[in-house]
Amino acid sequence: MKNARIFWVCIARRLGIDRKVGLSRSSRQVTIALCFAALHFAAAPSAAQEALDLTRVESAAPAKPESLADVPETEWTDAPEPEKPVVREGLILLPSLGLAFTGSGTLEASLDCQADACTSASFERDYSQNPNALLGFDTLYHVLPSLRLGLGLQWIPTSDVDVENGDSSTEFGDELSTTAVVEGVFGGKSAGALRGFIGTTFLFPGGELQELIDAMDAACRSTGGAGGSCNVADGPYVGLTLGAAAAFLRQVSRGAALRVELALQYVSFSGPNLEVTDEAGRRYEDSLSWSGTRLSLRFGIEF
Fold first, then answer.
1. Which CATH architecture has domain 91-302?
2. Is the pTM of this model over 0.90?
3. What digits encode the pLDDT tens for the residues 163-205?
4. Nearest to 176 by CA among 105, 238, 93, 99
5. Which H or E run contains 5?
6. How many CB atoms lie within 10 A of CB 137?
7. What is the DSSP secondary-structure string of 80-138?
8. CA-CA distance, 209 to 109, in Å (whole number)?
9. Where in the chain is the domain with CATH 2.40.160?
């Protein structure tokens, strides 16, 4: 607006003078050109004004550091991110592989006579557990985040022992245990577990135990041929098992955890049994039983 006023004032003055002095047409064109030139110079900023504006811009800009020492240090922290809490809930499946590596127990053989045909007697022999591989599979359910209940299976393909003053190794056969399990879990990503279990174990005869059963069967056949009666309990045999275990768990993902477990297990069996009644009605019974404890180490994965 200011520049437009300057232009029109210039024209008015020039034209006014023009009318008074009687300038020619060419002189009027020159006058208008001079007014345009005056307008141009009035619109252009002066050098002093440009210098003043530059000074203002530089004063508003942040000061540059004179050296690297003047640059403020940025604080960096290498603290790890907090671990997400481990959520323990729902159904847990636990396959495992392990080794029953030591143990001991007692074998007891007894002869019970109800007539004068023989004399009742019994004797015991100690045994030590041989290392035996085992497989396990547990199904557990979290009733609380730190408490779970479930069922467990354990299979020992070959259960054998060293009997004192006997053969170097005596094989009993295959052993399958079914147990009720209660287990407490304590900790986060790395956790501990304590469990107790009790249940039934089944023995399917094999090896030297099966040879003993076959000998009893042969004795029964000869007794039956002489007019008596005979019965042999040839398995599978049912026994009792119970124990406790301690385990260490390491969570490797949201749905999986590695597990190592040390367990102490008690087992008890009543084995082969021979009942004989001769032709005179005299009866006697020959039986074998054993019980013992063993330590086992198992490795598994929970998911």
1. Beta Barrel (2.40)
2. no
3. 887 666 889 999 999 999 999 999 999 999 999 999 999 999 9
4. 238
5. helix 2-21
6. 14
7. PPPPPPPP--SEEEEEEEEEEEEEEEEEEEEEEESSTTS--EEEEEEEEEPPEEEEEEE
8. 13
9. 91-302
> What is the band of 81 on the pLDDT scale with cuts at 50, 70, 90?
low
CA angle 258, 186, 92 (to 5 degrees): 50
CA–CA gap between residue 51 and residue 91 (Å, rounded) = 80
Sequence-separated (6 or more) residues with CB below 8 Å from residue 172:
159, 160, 161, 203, 205, 206, 207, 208, 209, 269, 271
Reading the block at residue 242, the tokens are 């119970």
Handedness of CA 25, 27, 28, 30 (dihedral sign): positive
Interval 16-32: pLDDT, tens: 544 444 445 555 555 55
Which pLDDT score is estimated for 217? 86
Say how many C-beta atoms besides its own lie within 10 A of residue 158's C-beta. 14
d(CA 101, CA 80): 41
Structure tokens, 47? 């050098």
* Both structure tokens of 289: 């039983």
> What pLDDT is stored for residue 97 in this prediction?
98
